[in-house]
Design goal:
single chain; about 260 residues; alpha/beta; Rossmann fold; seven-stranded mixed beta sheet; three-stranded mixed beta sheet; about 35% helix; globular; transferase
C-alpha cells in the first residue's frame, strides 16, 4: 500500500502503540512516531496519507482533504433500527432477502447496505462484501469487527460481514455457479447525490470503476435468485445492462433487478 504511514494519537498508551506497530506490519507501510506533531504537519513532512490509531477507532487523513475518514454506520443505524421494528427496508426488499440467504455485495464501500443485508439474512445467512481499495476495506473491515452500537442484534450483524479486498469481477469470475442467492451492485453514481458527503474524505481512494457487462453476466451465473443494481434515477446503466427498474417516486436513486428464478 503506497503513500500511507501509520502513527498514533497524541499521547498513546502502550496498547495503542503496540496496535499501531501491528497494523503497520499488516499493511506493510511505515510506522512513524507521532512526537507531538499534528497530522497536517506529518502529511507535509512525509508526503503521505496518515492512518492514525486512536483509542477506539482508526482515522485516515488523506492528503488534500481536511476531514478524516473513519468507520461509522451513520444512516445505516437509523435504517437498522427501523428494520428491527418493522422488517422494512428498500434495499432488503429489492434484493428479496430472507433468513439464510447468501448475498455478495460487489461494491461494499462503507458497508451500509451490507449491514442491513446481514440483519435480514441472520445467523444462518452469509454476507460477503468486496472492496477493491485496500485502505477502505481495511478501515471498514476493522470497524465492522470492533464498532459497538449498543444494539446487540446490530453488533452481531456487523461481526458477521465478511470483507474482501478484491475486485468484484475477479471474485465473480472465480465463484461457482449459484453459489450465492443475490449479487448486489451499488457503484459510484454517474451523477452526484446531495447528502452523500460522508464518503468525500476517502473518495479519491475509491475504485472509480463502472459495472461492466461481463460483471453482470458473471453475476447472473453466480446468483441463484436475482441480481440487483442500485443507481441514480437518471442512470443509463439500468437499460444498458438489462435491469428492470423499480421506480421510486421522489427518490434520488432506484433499484433495478434481474430475476433468475422461474
Amino acid at each position: 500500500m503506497e503513500g500511507v504511514i501509520v502513527t498514533t494519537s497524541g499521547r498513546p498508551s502502550q496498547r495503542i502503540l503496540e496496535r499501531a506497530l501491528a497494523i503497520s506490519k499488516q499493511l506493510q507501510v511505515p510506522f512513524i512516531q507521532r512526537k507531538k506533531r499534528s497530522v497536517p504537519t506529518m502529511k507535509t513532512i512525509y508526503h503521505s496519507n496518515v492512518l492514525v490509531v486512536e483509542e477506539d477507532r482508526l482515522t485516515f487523513h488523506s492528503r488534500g482533504e481536511q476531514k478524516p475518514f473513519f468507520f461509522h454506520p451513520n444512516a445505516a443505524m437509523f435504517r437498522a433500527k427501523h428494520w428491527l421494528k418493522t422488517r422494512e427496508d428498500p434495499m432488503v426488499h429489492a434484493c428479496g432477502l430472507t433468513k439464510g440467504d447468501r448475498i455478495f455485495d460487489a461494491t461494499l464501500g462503507l458497508g451500509s447496505d451490507a449491514i442491513l443485508a446481514s440483519l435480514a439474512v441472520g445467523q444462518s445467512g452469509r454476507v460477503i462484501g468486496a472492496e477493491k481499495s485496500k485502505i477502505i476495506s481495511f478501515i471498514v473491515g476493522t470497524g465492522l469487527k470492533e464498532y459497538v452500537s449498543y444494539v446487540p442484534k446490530v453488533d452481531e450483524a456487523l461481526r458477521r460481514i465478511e470483507v474482501l479486498s478484491v475486485n468484484h469481477l475477479d471474485w465473480l469470475v472465480n465463484a461457482p455457479d449459484h453459489s450465492v442467492d443475490v449479487v448486489y451492485f451499488d457503484p459510484m453514481f454517474e451523477e452526484s447525490v446531495t447528502g452523500s458527503d460522508g464518503f468525500e474524505p476517502i473518495r479519491i481512494h475509491t475504485a472509480m470503476e463502472t459495472i461492466s457487462e461481463q460483471a453482470v453476466l458473471e453475476a447472473k451465473r453466480v446468483a441463484r435468485k436475482r441480481v440487483v443494481l442500485k443507481d441514480h434515477f437518471r442512470s443509463t446503466r439500468f437499460q444498458t445492462l438489462g435491469f428492470h427498474v423499480d421506480v421510486r417516486l421522489s427518490a434520488t436513486f432506484h433499484y433495478g433487478t434481474i430475476e433468475l428464478e422461474d
